[in-house]
Design goal:
By secondary structure, the chain is mainly α. The chain contains 16 helices and no strands.
């Protein structure tokens, strides 16, 4: 496996057509901020309504990830899938500009969750198919860079728009137009590949796997990755028990549980954060600017995460990033004890949310490397399906838990719980590192058998990865 992920392209853009992804990332990043504001300001909804919308959206994304993954394998029309995805965004954004009730918003936002996974599968497969093995690292690095640049552009558009005008709904037309620009650029600027691949190929390539994990939409939630549909057949429980016994001796179960806790805390925090900023007295423009700071620091830190992982090791970086995220969550909880005016609340949250952006950039790269090394030589498709199932459960549970806690009206409790979940995940990451070291670099196990006079004793077989196994 690669020792690190390539996180900075040797050229700004590996191919010019990758610039087609800038407008769509601008549209989705801006929409991720405007949606809760639309609920809270235009429709006079509550924090609980934001949580309900997120729950419906996440549930749709999880269910449709399996469907779109299957369709991507059966019908290798990447360009068509991307155009359907992005044009669908444009139409639904315009429809949201005319909603008059929360029920209509819930329905439209759920449909957005239905079509969201289509682009995630198609974009990654498109890059895998259009670039050679030698070019892919640079291509995916470029893809990540244009995605982050697009996100910053979209948030800045939202900031300047809301700074100059209170017409929040008309901003949806702007984001819809950006989605159309991407759809047109992809349709006329890219040809279909002559060598179609399957979604399972993504799991075998570290850069593509990392890119898929890092794809974010509305509430900053990664789209789950289901490269295979759940297998159905005779004796499924027996297969599950056999698989569980095998995995108990591997670090992957610990990684999956630790990632589940991280995703649960992130969803709980992110869904509640914009409503919290609104109740803290921040204007829509200030909320956009706080989000700009997060994305801007991610963009600054991200290029160095591959080199940091090589020098310091991904295990150490995961611990540091997780701990830093937990401190940021607890600091936000601490803000609820203080009596800030508008400027003080804006400044404090700007600093903390910037730090959280840097931490998530480091965490994503390091955790992706840890996950990928555990997949080497194994059924990556099935294991990633399990990991995505837990990630999807964390998304829905985080949104639902946010709604439950909103009944108590306590943002403080939400942020304390989110920080606590991260702290609980730290020992699991440590245990996963120990399990990997023991599996990969453990000592030779000597098997002692009773002496049998009629047959010479066979020498014990060394454990794979041990010093004896490597001796010629």
């Amino acid at each position: 496996m690669a020792n690190s992920l390539h996180t900075w392209p040797s050229r700004l853009v590996a191919r010019p057509w990758l610039l087609a992804f800038v407008p769509i990332n601008a549209a989705t990043a801006g929409f991720g901020v405007i949606l809760p504001l639309l609920i809270l300001i235009s429709l006079h909804g509550s924090w609980a309504d934001v949580a309900v919308a997120a729950t419906l959206f996440n549930a749709a994304v999880i269910l449709m990830s399996v469907v779109w993954g299957h369709l991507s394998d059966r019908y290798p029309r990447r360009r068509l899938f991307l155009v359907v995805n992005y044009a669908g965004y444009a139409v639904l954004y315009v429809l949201l500009a005319h909603v008059g009730s929360l029920t209509a918003l819930f329905v439209i936002y759920t449909v957005i969750g239905v079509i969201a996974p289509a682009g995630a599968s198609a974009s990654n497969l498109l890059i895998l198919e259009k670039f050679t093995e030698e070019e892919r690292a640079n291509a995916f690095a470029s893809f990540q860079e244009v995605s982050m640049i697009g996100s910053i552009v979209g948030l800045l558009i939202g900031y300047f728009w809301t700074l100059a005008s209170d017409a929040l709904l008309s901003l949806l037309y702007v984001f819809g137009a950006l989605a159309v620009v991407s759809a047109i650029a992809i349709w006329f600027g890219i040809r279909e590949s002559t060598r179609p691949l399957t979604t399972l190929t993504v799991a075998r390539h570290p850069e593509s796997l990392f890119s898929r994990i890092r794809v974010v939409t509305s509430f900053g939630i990664p789209i789950p990755f289901f490269p295979r549909r759940p297998a159905l057949g005779p004796a499924p429980l027996a297969r599950l028990r056999r698989w569980a016994r095998e995995e108990l001796h591997h670090e992957l179960p610990l990684i999956v549980i630790a990632s589940f806790l991280f995703n649960l805390s992130a969803n709980l925090y992110n869904i509640s954060y914009t409503p919290y900023l609104y109740t803290a007295g921040l204007t829509a423009a200030s909320i956009f600017l706080v989000n700009v700071s997060n994305n801007f620091v991610q963009t600054l830190v991200f290029p160095f995460t591959g080199g940091l992982s090589t020098r310091a090791g991904p295990d150490k970086l995961v611990h540091r990033a997780t701990y830093l995220r937990s401190v940021g969550y607890l600091a936000t909880a601490g803000f609820t004890f203080m009596f800030f005016n508008h400027r003080e609340a804006f400044g404090a949250n700007l600093v903390v949310y910037s730090i959280l952006g840097g931490a998530i950039a480091v965490y994503t790269t390091a955790s992706s490397l840890i996950l990928f090394r555990g997949l080497i030589g194994r059924d990556a498709g099935s294991l990633l399906g399990v990991n995505s199932a837990f990630g999807g459960a964390a998304a829905v549970l985080g949104a639902g838990l946010s709604g439950v806690l909103s009944l108590y009206g306590s943002y403080r409790l939400v942020f304390l719980v989110a920080g606590g979940l991260l702290l609980v995940s730290l020992p699991l990451w440590t245990a996963a590192s120990v399990a990997y070291a023991k599996r990969r670099f453990g000592r030779t196990t000597v098997i002692v058998r009773p002496e049998v006079p009629t047959r010479p004793e066979r020498p014990a077989r060394p454990v794979e990865g041990s010093a004896a196994a490597k001796t010629p």
